[in-house]
Amino acid sequence: MEIIRDIFQHVPLPFVIAWWVIGGITVFLFIMGIRKHVRAWKQGRSEQVSGTALARFTRLIYFGIAQAKVLSKRYNGTTHALISIVGFLLLLGMFFPILQPAVGYLGLLFGAGLILLEYKRLRATGPPLETAWEDSFVYGVIVAMAVSGFLMMGVNTWAWPSPAGSVLSPLFEPLGSKVLVELYPGLWLIHSALVFSLIAYIPNSRLIHLITSPANVYYTPITVKGELTSPFDLKQMMETGNFDVKVGASEINDFTWRQKLSFDACTLCVRCTDACPATASGTKLSPMHLILKLKDLELQSRDTGRRLHGDVVDPEELWACTTCRACVQECPVLIQHVEAIYDMRRHLMAEGKVDKKKRDLLTFLSTVGNPYGLASGDRMKWAEGLDIKIWGEELEQEFLYWVGCAGSYDTRNQMVSRALVKIMKAAKVSFGVLGNDERCNCEVARRVGEEGRFQQAAMELIETLNKRGVKKIVTQCPHCYNTFRNEYPRFGGKFEVLHHTQLIAKLLQEGRLRLAKGRQQTVTFHDPCYLGRYNDEYEAPRRIIRALSGKRLIELPRSRSKSFCCGGGGGNTWYTVEGKKKCSVIRTEEAHRMETNIFAAACPYCISMFEDAAKIVGTSESMPVRDVAELVAEALEQ
Amino acid sequence: MFYTQDLRIDRTTKTLKTEGVARVISESDKNAIEEAVRLKEKHGGKITVLTMGPAQTKEALREAIAMGADEGYMLAGPEFENSDAHATALALSAAIKKIGQFDMILCGETSEDQYSFQVGPRTAEILNLPQITYAVKITLQDSNILVERNLEDCYETVESKLPAFVTVSREINEPRLPTLMAIMAASKKPMTAWNLADIGLKPGEVGREGSLTEPLRSAVATGERKRILIEGEPGEAAEKLVTALVSEGVVKVG
Prior knowledge:
Largest interface: A-B, 34 and 20 residues
Largest sheet of chain A: 4 strands, parallel
Number of helices of chain B: 7
CATH topology of the largest domain in chain A: Fumarate Reductase Cytochrome B subunit
Low-confidence stretches of chain A: none
Helix content of chain B: 25-40%
Number of strands of chain A: 8
Low-confidence stretches of chain B: none
Number of domains of chain B: 2
Strand content of chain A: under 5%
Order of helices and strands of chain B: EEHEHEHEHEEEEHEHH
Radius of gyration of chain B: 21 Å
Oligomer: heterodimer
Distance between the termini of chain A: 82 Å
Structural class of chain B: alpha/beta
Shape of chain A: elongated
Mean pLDDT of chain A: 92
CATH architecture of the largest domain in chain A: Up-down Bundle
Number of helices of chain A: 27
Largest sheet of chain B: 5 strands, mixed
Structural class of chain A: mainly alpha
């Protein structure tokens, strides 16, 4: 049996010539079209993509070929797989006889995919996916391609035995075999021309994602999720005295070639926007549209003078992002929306184009070392009467308890700090705090785009911690947790970092906490973004809640990696973004619908946000907001 | 100035405890720098920043330059410490004379730790310049300036020839915030530190000795809140609130 099929079998010469002509034009158009895209990407900044080729190739197989994330939406995913994977196999079947017996069945699957697609479009509930006339054109060509393919099978049963063929062939039999033999080349040419036109159209339509999406899956750097990339190394710059570096993206070509490729990889599937809390709360941000605007800008054929900032992207969009990572989590083709937002925020920051609240926030960080602007000498007020050891006062303290700014200054979160201290004392955990030497690690500065301030704080703080011999850190703030765990190693701070839920879960497991019998109550748990999506810790808080006597855990509809941000991340605790309904209110209503007794979280931002929202929704009494640590502290045996 | 949130009063000496308290640029001084940068962006020119204070002032000077100034001078040293408004104005005017040519001097209306509102006007007097205080808008017209002033219950527009001395109000603009990188990069721009002799003054003319005023006592002002809770439907409550504010004399009607 031959390996490559003679596709010109049963086809007269003029048809073969026509095939080659159309094929030649297709290849030409395809290459010219792709060149336009590649040229656009190459105008971006250079980037050395991290991760080994093998690791990236494995990921390509998983997300690109097996379409792991595409399939996470069952209906749309299945439809997509039926058309894409089966379509690809059909194309291979054209050349490889080994696939020939399967072609007929594959054709049926492909047809089923097309029908499912149209059915969904006609019966769509909720807002439909965005479509343009060209999408209908593409769909029409694909349908025509499938129909002509089936007709070919029906006409040519002698060479192509297939289920569809045997169903259709009786329709054609009356024409007589002579006519059929003459009909076949015509159908063959039409079918081929349709396939060719589709290929030629790839670079100018949404079908470009056939190229760009797998390419993006391959090139997206393999990094730690919670760590931001940085445009400079402050320490190095201070040593050399050279501070000439362009920070942030002021125009489209300030993004790297890989980022520009990623914008081009968007398939308009809307999953990011559907998951985005900023979109849901009615702000100007829609992650998909942001990416599409960038894509449109980078692909514009001539310079129209449109500026990235102002003409294309509105600062409000950028400031609306809570950096919750839901968009990145959902994106089937691994576009890094949040990274692009940071790049643009950094530019606004470098230009000084920030409003008073953000300026105040940053001024507070550099003057008093906390984002509230409260006296640095008042940092330990929360601990009055608690007899807490300062780190280093006693020998052999195990943990540095990093209270964080919210835990130190915010009256509501001070209660969480006190609860955690009660737990650690009950379990005889040896710990100390930095006291008035604790200063904000400036995570929030980094998230609003003030990279220098963050790196300076990191350098100072790491020096303090290393000098004092800190090895293990426990904190109730997932943002501090993420920074210490994922961002400090690059700056020389290597610590074992525990979120307080991880410590408490461990203490419970070791039997170091004795819990009293509690009332029968239901608890829902809200996964904080920086604990869950960024650090994959979903179990520790759940294990704690399950261990509490009388408490029954109810899962929210959107939980774990689908968790819906409280609205406080990325600096948004400190300024107001115009919208219709706050994220925290949307989430509180969602919890309220579960008719739960307690609304639990494990992050100071979430606690603050939900406490405010509870007053708006009117659930302060009926569904109190509690940190997981507070639930444990309440349950401790006296 | 000192970052006020961190300031505490030493009950025995009755002075401000300033140890470890961050030094920052007064807000209205930032407004003055911002206005200078905006004027420069529009009309061109050169911006020189001048400040007086302890050694940490260098940081503040760098920040000012990072906002867009071209060069900086600072009067630093223990001899300048504890100067009152008069002594400060004397030192600043001496330095300005030494710096030389200028078209306009901009400064904040007041520092937010002392709130004397005097340094600007006093400096202008010593330099014998036309002075315009509490500016909320500055327009440059040929060799004249048109300045809108906030006089609390009304605005006044005045015109002056240049050179002139202008103190600016907080509402004039939103000052930009330089990033840490910009501040670090600013250390490459020229910065000069002068001592007393450099500006041609004698010991005793500035500092506590040169001051005309003397602080006798510092105290924390306490104000008792009235804690009035107005209840009712929003419309009704708003009416009650208005009535209460009017009867307290906080709001004037008609």
